């Protein structure tokens, strides 16, 4: 009996398997369960396959092997809130099944007709919320774009249904997006201008061209107040989000870091959006995973201090700071993010899980086995 327990313990410590039937192109990796994994789990509203797998696996991106999904892995709609999942073993491999559905041989989680939405791979709602309101644009494009001049009443702020004027030649009958320029994204290593963030404030429909380069338009929709000077651009046809994302470790990047937050502020938590300073030009693709590293604090050791005491850089005197740079303690992984939108030199990424907030200028590492809690 003791020997059987030892065998089971070894199996749960290190499990090897092949990626047969998996379309992700990942190399075979050991399927490792978390030391504190549960035996059963009840699916909650808002859960994703990533979240649930994170309760069981040290590497949640291997979730297809845990679910024993059918060959058409592109459809992850397998489970629903309220379902009870049980961890079982099939040919020495762990599998998650609905309670009471364990069978010999191949175990599957079959779809069921349910009124509520099935569990998605990752939180698509967070991505949709972002992509519906923000774009990364070439700074030169924003500078030369048509812009709102005003209306007949001389108002600074426009409301839905207003007929207003735009500086620029627009195509009558066409719907345009109205964008407000935000911060410019400049790489701190190369000093290159990578792009400019812009917020979608609403849309207008071009009515007719007036004299010169002025076009009369009507405000069709508003996300926030529309002002004089807001830029008018064609709505992006390629901004629809993918139906499914399959996270996997991304390629190694040099000097990669969080360059900006998706929204206002300097921090982001779970399911927040951030921008990184790498894009298609550096081989980044949608679905790539990266750990976020929190830099260690600076510290002056005994030999560096005239007071013969340990001192953090933040509390060090100006004299001590002038003696030289502080020793930097090691960085620690605090979160994982997944790229979901790739531009030429910049990418937008979603914070999937983490132990702490992430901030601008936090560097990115190479993902091996972050093992963070969802």
TrEMBL record:
InterPro entries: Bact_Kbp (IPR052196), LysM (IPR018392), LysM_dom_sf (IPR036779). Pfam families: LysM (PF01476). Residues 39-87 form the LysM domain. PANTHER family: PHAGE-LIKE ELEMENT PBSX PROTEIN XKDP, POTASSIUM BINDING PROTEIN KBP. This is Peptidoglycan-binding protein.
